[in-house]
Amino acid sequence: MIGGLGPESTIDYYRSIIARFRALKPDGGYPHVVINSLDVDKGIALLDAGRLGELADYLTAGVELLVLAGADFGFIAANTPHLVFDEVQRRSAIPLLSIVRATCDHTKALGLKKVGLFGTGFTMRASFYPEEFQRAGIAVVRPNESEREFIHRKYVGELLNNRFLPETRTKLLNIAQRMRDEDGIEALVLAGTELPLLLRDSGSPGIDFLDTTVIHVEAIVDELLR
Predict the structure, then answer these.
(1) Cα angle at 222 between 37 and 194, to 5 degrees?
(2) Are residues 120 and 207 in the same domain?
(3) Which of 6, 45, 92, 179 is deepest in the core (most CB within 10 A)?
(4) pTM listed for this prediction
């Protein structure tokens, strides 16, 4: 696991992997998981500066350490770094499980045709989610510009610092409800692995969340059990 991007979601990933593995393998044993926790602040600084080549280098070096530790496959426990996923995969000696691909496959299996997208500003502006989903015949709707700015500010300023505030939750749910009512989204992709920590148990009526952490973990554990 390439973790640390940010730390709280890495903890959530590890806990979820253990729980799902144990549920599917009740006769005993635990998965062998190697975690390389990177520096989220360094990653954000590279993104802010538009230095995607250096971000790819940073992630590739992180994967190389997983290889040296004996990993058979890898994954990045975050959405935003998938901006450079294809480059990192090209340079990786082991296969990497994409959170975007896993989420797209899951969404397609549900028969959905139009979904909203929450994430960091980098993720919401980028094309990697819309392009992957478009190939599966699914439209991706982004929040409007002011909503994207709000979500990004709260994501970086609060969620990545382990601050999950009820007023932020309420505002995000209001945005989701507007997108359902005005844009016709059928579900909302939580394309930021800290977002489920804020919204997972919000119990909002009429809005289905596609929790990318849960979806990714299912694919990861399936691969571990092959």
Answers:
(1) 40
(2) yes
(3) 6
(4) 0.95
